[in-house]
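Retro notes, item 3 of 5
We never archived the inputs for the adenosine-5'-diphosphate complex last cycle. Fixing that now. Sequence and ligand:
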Amino acid sequence: MAAAIGHEIRNPLSSLKGFTQLQQERYPNTNDFYPIMIQEIDRINSIVNDLMYLGKPKVIEFEKASIEEIIAYTLSITQQQAERQSVTVETIIEGPLSPIDCDDKQLKQVFINLLKNAIEAMPKGGKIKIQVKVSKERKMLISIEDEGCGIAEENILNIGEPFYTTKKDGTGLGLMVTNQIIKDHKGELSIHSRLEKGTKVEVELPINQK
Ligand code: ADP
Ligand code: MG
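Structure as it came back at the time:
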């Protein structure tokens, strides 16, 4: 049901976006609001996408993919936002890493969500450390550590609840979707955080799906 409704919302949204872009091209001198309108339409779109994902029962088509490439892609997507906020990212890969069975589009979504959260936790800049390695149990371990605002102990249980956000522009859906995707991959996600010190998110994924 949620998926069907999502679909119905996306269609009119895409024509709205198309016409807004057209207006912007036609009246380039009066377009102060057009970029904002387009940005806000994109935002509705991404909320609807998240809701659709959560509403749909998922059968994943597992394929082999390189975790290095997935992480590199996520870094390219988030790079601009990081630069704007003076956030640097260090990636430590303890290779060689075997390819993992996954839906690479979904894993990209996971790491985009986690990386964005790390960047958003450091409005005054800082460093993010990403570490990737294979555990003794032959699981892929990916950790993302920031030096940001951290999460207060009394809020840690709310994290991942639908619409729980502490951000002015947040949706509170990112971690929910992230949790769902990791669960669909039979993986685990854990969060360790200290207020004003930073947050470390660890993702553990099976390399082979049976
Ligand atoms: P959103 O980013 O839209 O707020 P999320 O589901 O991604 O939604 O995150 C929910 C909340 O969890 C955030 O609003 C924030 O309070 C907290 N959070 C998540 N990741 C971090 C992090 N790396 N550092 C500090 N707080 C975080
Ligand atoms: Mg988020």
